[in-house]
Amino acid sequence: MAKQAIHATTTAERSMSSWDLFATWIGANANNGTWYIGGVIAAAGLVTASKLLILVGIGSYVLLALASYMGYKTGVSAMGLTRASFGVKGSILPSLINVIQFIGWAATNTYIAATSISFILKEVLGWANNPTTNHLSLIFGILIMSVLHLISISLGECSVRWIERVGIILVIIFVTWESIVVFTMVPFKELLAWHPAAKSILPNGKVIDILAAFNLAWVTAAADFSRFTSSKKAATTYSFLGANIGLIWFAFIGLTATIATAVTLNHFDPNNADPSTIAAKLGLGVLALLVIVLTSTTANAVNLMAAGSALTNIFHKLKLTPALWIVTLIATAITFIPVYVASFLTTFEAFLDGIGMLLGPEIAIFLIDYFVLKHRHYQVDQLTAANGAYWYRHGYNWAAIISWGIGVASYLFLNQFSLITQTTGATFIAMFITAGVYTLAMQFQPAVTFAKEK
């Protein structure tokens, strides 16, 4: 395997300010998917869901700040950094997971925004509300959103920055307005008093796993943006604050709006948790639906950038812009799955289970390798070197790959116990297990590997 340089950002390329990263991470979570997550966890009740939302958000985004520090320190993308822990060739595994999960998140946001466009089309064109027009308007919505995404990502990292700068202002206005409408329609004491029927209640552990799967997805993309800043505080503190503000703010609105809808209609249905349906049921009008479309574009600028960046780590000769087009087109195709195969809620829950199982162990290895085993120092020039410091065995670090497999297996095993699903959830326990196994496994690496790294 020929040696190929990996690009680390130069001083001139590090133009993202503290505000840019702050706005990027608020915008990353101020979106339809976050709103929908809030609606899904409404099944735990307002108080329980709110507490877990804050606790899991803080814990998850401490990890995001750590991963963001890695990008700031090295100037290398997230998946480029996995070459040090998984091996130069072995990094294909986490890169593939990242491509799949961020395409999945892009498809999720696209579907919700397409639902908004569906409502708008029926309102503007005067279409009757029947299965045929619902189906047709949703297809049009998906195609329109995909065109908007292709335009938004065509300029690469610069487009993300400008989309977030403009979009975040409109998002703040919308969420403020939405908050006023919700709390005017339903008194807060009624929201507090509401509880779902026993058959619909989500146990604490399940809520934690749902939130962890959602939050940890961003940890694997943090370095893709922090590598463009020269400020340590921007990479860590502002990324942490932005991600938490976006999460808690939008998920709480989704949570309260879903409960408000349930109180108003005297019926709770988690299938109605998406913002487009709630906006329509609460009578918020076309303007609200248009802002939902905007939030999808701001969030997917980050999703698609992360997926495209991971794809370039798999196919080294592929440039970022064509990679972004490829992942956008694939996301468009995947968005049609809930239209023809299953309900959106069923598809979404299956997606969350899959990424929660895979991402936790991967992140545990990624962080423990850099901060504990390698003492916060990677040799960037060795990240693509054949027979170099991170070549391990034929380009693969089997200690990482086997530890990752054990972590995934432990997640599946832990979920078999009601004690886990009722209390802590499996995600963070599986991460601790993976970190411990990986640390032990690395003690048995051949001495020559460590000699090369020094």
Automatic annotation (TrEMBL):
Spans traversing the lipid bilayer: 21-46, 52-72, 92-114, 134-155, 167-188, 208-226, 238-262, 282-302, 323-345, 351-373, 394-414, 426-444
Subcellular locations according to the entry: Membrane
GO cellular component terms attached to this protein's record: plasma membrane
Annotated keywords: Membrane, Transmembrane, Transmembrane helix, Transport
Transmembrane as UniProt keyword: yes
Annotated membrane topology: Multi-pass membrane protein
GO molecular function: cytosine transmembrane transporter activity
Superkingdom, taxonomy of origin: Bacteria
Pfam hit, one: Transp_cyt_pur
Record family assignment: Belongs to the purine-cytosine permease (2.A.39) family.
UniProt protein name: Purine-cytosine permease related protein
